[in-house]
Each structure stands twice: as C-alpha cells, then as structure tokens.
Amino acid sequence: MEEFKIENNQEPTSIELRPGLEGVPVTQSSICDIDGIKGDLKYRGYSIAELAQKSSFLETTFLLIWGNLPTASQLREFENQIQMHRRLSFRVRDMMKCFPESGHPMDALQSSAASLGLFYSRRAIDDPKYIYDAVVRLIAKIPTMVAAFQLIRKGQDPIQPRDDLPYSANFLYMLTEKEPDPLAARVFDRCLILHAEHSLNASTFSARVTASTLTDPYAVIASAVGTLAGPLHGGANEDVIKMLQEVQTPDLAGKYLDKAIKSKQKIMGFGHREYKVKDPRASLLQSFAEELFARFGKDEMYDVAKALEAEASPRLGPKGIYPNVDFYSGLVYRKLGIPRDLFTPIFAISRVAGWLAHWREQLSANRIFRPTQIYKGEKDRNWEPLEDR
Ligand code: CMC
Predict the structure, then answer these.
(1) pTM for the whole thing?
(2) What average pLDDT does range 63-87 have in this prediction?
(3) Containing domain of residue 87, as a range?
(4) Least packed by Cβ within 10 Å: which of 77, 84, 225, 266?
C-alpha cells in the first residue's frame, strides 16, 4: 500500500484511499437496511413490499422519521397538519413565477425549498416542536412546489390544494388539474413509499453532511435536492425513457446494448453500489406498471424495457448489474401522465422523508463531517510576477 502524508499528520502513514467512500462506514443508522445480495430492503425493520402493500406514504414517512408506526391518533394528527400546511405563501409563488420557464424543475425545487429558510428563520434544532413543524412544512409544501412550477411554466397560475383529497391524490390533482382515478392515486402513493429512503446514497449523505453543521432543515433538504438531480443518482429515471426511445423496438435491444457496452456507455437504470441482484423496488415498480397497463392500456415502451432487461442479463448480470429503482419508475409515471422532467422532482417529494429521518438521526449524535484528503499538488512554488508568466 502506498504511503501518504495526510492533513494534520506530518508522519507518512499507510492509509487506503477509497474514492466515492465505497464500503467506508461513516455513521451508524437504524433507519433502513439493505441486503444487496438477497435483494432485500427494510425501513425500520418492515419489508418494503409489505409497506407498499399495506401502508400509505404519510404513515411510512412517520415511521421513517420517528422510528415506529404511528397510532391512529398520531397518524390523524400528522395527516391533518400536513393538509393544513400544503399551501405556499404568495411570496414563494411570486418568486417561482420569476424562474425561467425553460429551467429544470429540480432547480426550481431546490431554490424554492431553500427559500423556506427565509420564511421560517428560527433555528431551534433542539426543540422537538421546531423539528415536528419543520418536518410537516417540508413534507406538505414540497409537492405543492413541484406542481406549482409545472403550471407556472405553462403560463398558468398554480392551483390551490384540495383539502378533501389525500396526499397523493391531491398532488396529482394540483399537477394535472383533474381529480385522479383512485387506482392512479394509490399506485402513485406506493411509488412514493418505495422511493422514500435508501440509506447513505449520495443525496442522503449530502443531507447528513449539511445537517452536521447544525444549519436549518431547509438548507439540509435543498442540498439533498441538488445532489439527487444528477444523472448518476435520481436523474437516471429521465434518461431511462430517453434510452428506451433510442432503442426504438424490442428486437433492437441486444444490438443497442452491444454498441453501448463496447463504447463503455452506462446503461441507464442499471447497476447499483449496494445491489448485486435486481433491485427489489424495480420488481415492485414493474408490477405497478403492469397494474396500470391492465387498466389504462399498455405503453409500447414497456416491451422495449423488458427486452432490454432480458438482453442485459447475460451481458451485465455476471458483473452484478441489474435494473435499479429508476428502470421501471419512468414507465409508471408516464402512464400517470407525468412529464419526463418531473420524474426526479417526484423522487425528491418522496425522498424528503428519508432525508428528514437522517437529519433527526444526525442531530441525535452529531459530529461535523470533516474527512481528510491526500494532497497530490505542487509544493513550495516560487511566485512569478505577472509580466514573466
Ligand atoms: N451500465 C454498464 N456498465 C455498468 C453500469 C451500467 N449501468 N453500472 C456499472 N457498470 C460497470 C462499470 O462500467 C464498471 O465496469 P468496469 O469494472 O469494467 O470498469 C463496473 O460496472 C463498476 O461500475 P461503477 O460505476 O464503478 O459502479 P458504482 O458502484 O460506482 O456505480 C452506479 C453505481 C449506480 C453509479 C452505476 O451503476 C451507474 O452509473 N448506473 C447508471 C446510472 C443509474 O442508473 N443510476 C441510478 C442509481 S439507483 C437510484 C439512485 O441512486 O438514484
């Protein structure tokens, strides 16, 4: 192993550099457990498949953030509070109207989420009421922001939430201006459950790093939204649909893969740092897509996706590369009439639950993140005057 000098340690020492922190534990957590070999995912000890079948997104959010399933009265109170805080201040709406319509909705969401810190500037992160209120505000307002930007960029005014509609149905209503079919609303709610948490992925790590400085929760969520936006993370769900369109037809899937693999291009929606088998969420999302197709008609892209999965298995399977959560989610959202560039903001609507759970957990045993580096740059250079360079 190479000997390096590390910061604050002038003696050479043998340390292993792990780019991307692969396999390096940086915290203890009791929120989410992934078995990447069996393809198993649990939130607070409950299997994801059971939660998707029996729970609601808000109940799962409560479980993630406070550690246990809520009692009936806790859940009622939480749902009521969320419903009361769904609206955005006219100032936030007006600010959003100044955003360029051509901007990406993730950028709009990141800016809008960060702006909440201006409106709720008290920073009392050791006060349980402050924490509860911040959780409620963020879970309630993030979907309203996503829906508002969608209407604003079409030149319309955002519509107000409907108090008679539950969380997911209300979001789809605010987005499409139509009350959704109950099956569509339920499938959407189940998608939110599946995306709500996934241990120390890049955006959650980003949330924890930001939280560790003891800043406010709006900054924590805004930094996580920015991290989620990248194509190697949440942004992959958009690229999957682009890729399926490029493949065109099921019979061309093998040819597409051979060309992509040969040119070292990543197949979007495939591969995962944790899973060496098919992501359990991908299997569940595939079944949700099929439920929607049975009711509302098939999407021809689904056959392309299945062909790509089948053709990828002999080519990428031996390296442990299988479909991840992003592979089938876009097909579900497409069937729900959601535009492609809203797929990642929808991921954020859901993942805010996990980020907030990690925010609380980080605060409960905080130590500011400050890793070290191995300096490989120039040393002791002599200053060259401008005229001599
Ligand atoms: N297509 C083709 N080859 C792949 C893929 C892929 N999707 N993913 C990994 N590989 C290969 C990679 O080329 C490398 O091969 P080699 O060892 O020959 O150089 C090997 O597998 C290891 O890849 P890696 O990029 O070092 O693995 P990682 O653990 O750092 O990457 C990943 C995980 C998710 C970033 C990566 O699989 C990837 O870029 N996938 C495509 C983007 C994607 O779908 N992202 C969504 C991730 S899941 C949801 C989320 O986090 O938001």
Answers:
(1) 0.94
(2) 98
(3) 47-230+340-364
(4) 84
